[in-house]
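Duplicate of earlier report; Transport permease protein input re-posted below.
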Amino acid sequence: MTTAQTKASTGRVVSRWAGAWLRVEGHWMWYRRYWVSTLYSTGLQPVLFLAAMGLGFGSQVQAGAATGGFSYLEYVAPALLVAGAAQLAVGESSYPVLSGFKWQQDYIAVTATPITPGQVLGSQIMWVSLRLTLAGTIYAVIAALFGSWTSFGVPAVVLIGTLTGIACGTPVMALAATTYDEGTRFGLVFRFILIPMTLFSGTFFPIAELPAPLRWIAWFSPLWHGNEAARAVSLGTVGPLATLGHLAFLVVLAGVGWALAHKYFYRRLVV
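Output:
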């Protein structure tokens, strides 16, 4: 009779960052099978807006004080990149995150391994950041063919778009983590927060054109801060201190959203 022997485990618990990147790899393995279906949201949607507003409508707008002396195409190009990033981020942070809890339940499966809820959240934020950077780069390249850029600050505009998207996306991830019966919750976010924010945050015209009692709403909009920072590095229409203030607002909002999402991810995934 043979004696059963206990073998030493050769496995090891991965580090915090390695565990998150394993999840990012999983996102990529899935995404490369359906990336064609996301071409519109990944880069074509803001390009179509640029063609319609920058080339079409913009051909009727003369350069002046409202546009900082630049053509309307040059004025609106960085803001459309940022607006597209915000829309993509909110979309990727709502139903896909809820699906990880409720429908596909891959978050539940993954956290049954040594991967923690914090790593799951971190991987989601990193994956959305990669998507935003890719989308922004595609847009920037196509917009360059239209003659939309006046400086070499385009890479910074792409990064600002990514930061703005994360500042918009992390609070939505926290909302998704507290959602059990979605109903019209996300639809209300899109209709009454995202769309008005796109229209009235200085994307298409300066907020100085808004009635004075409504301007304070734009001041609390992450999209306005992203638009101003993007125009600062591409057009030079905003001073350095103001630009740092806009970036600080986005960083703080992204951090608050991450803290809330971190709390609710653990609350929902740790039994």
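The first helix runs from residue 16 to 31.

Merging into the original ticket.
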